[in-house]
Amino acid sequence: MIICHCQNITDHDINAAIDWMRASDGKTIITPGKVYRALGKAADCGGCMPLFLSTMRSNENTEVPMQLRNLRSATTQEQRHERRQESH
Ligand code: FES
To answer: pTM (2 decimals)?
Structure first.
């Protein structure tokens, strides 16, 4: 099924790009921009983005790698500790 009409990208193209990126780098965060780049194309009108993202989300290889999850909350807690005033 055609997902992006401007660039003639199918759901198969998106899934193949995602699977290729995950196979070549297990820690990469996969974004729509990276998928376009992997396919040698660039977004034009952006009208396909909701369907493009939905197609990406249906591929289990799009998930953020386990070792990269919760980094934001860990960083936030670290900053809180650094800002805490010592009471002695
Ligand atoms: S339909 Fe995908 S960029 Fe226009």
So the answer is: 0.77
Token match 């799009």: residue? 62
Ligand 1 centre distance from Cα of residue 24 (Å): 26
Contact 48, 56 (CB under 8 A): no
Name residues whose C-beta falls within 8 Å of residue 39's C-beta, 6 or more positions apart in sequence.
7, 9, 13, 17
Which amino acid belongs to residue 43? A
pLDDT tens-place string over residues 16-38 = 999 999 999 988 899 999 999 99
Angle between helices 11-24 and 49-57 (to 10 degrees): 50
Q: Is the CB of 42 under 6 A from ligand 1?
A: no
